[in-house]
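Posted in: Structural Biology > Protein-Ligand Complexes

Title: Requesting predicted complex, calcium ion in pocket

I'd be grateful if someone could produce the 3D structure tokens for the following input. Sequence and ligand are given below.
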Amino acid sequence: MRRGIRAALPALAGAVVLTGTLLSAPAEAAGGVVIHRVYFDSPGTDDRSNTSLNAEWVQIKNTSSSAISLRNWVLKDASNHKYTFRDVKIGAGRTMKVRTGRGSDTAANKYQNRRAYVWNNTSDTATLTKANGTRADSCSWTTRDPSDKYC
Ligand SMILES: [Ca+2]
Ligand SMILES: [Ca+2]
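-- Reply #1 --
Done. Output follows.
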């Protein structure tokens, strides 16, 4: 009988571990903040005017059903040029453009305040990371894409 009890213990322990895993799994909210579209080659000649710089942008979208704080989230290119979000929120289902040039931030438009382009026309990767450093999303493009890409 003792041998039988001992043999049953590992199976019992396994059941406890499995139950614990199921109970501790968080009910993840569907969706999150993703990179929706990148306009990497602003229309016309790249003359470095502020208008042209601002026609180069990355559009992010909150696909979840609640507002998400972007404080200290980072948007960067393959060469590690970083844009750090201030203490702003993106509403449920809303989009937001991060434009390369100078301007005054609004709910829908943020400005990197750069005087040079950041998203390479040939190929590049935009990566969005959360405040804790984990990757929220990324999007890559090449010359096979037109001036913009839906990610
Ligand atoms: Ca560009
Ligand atoms: Ca251009």
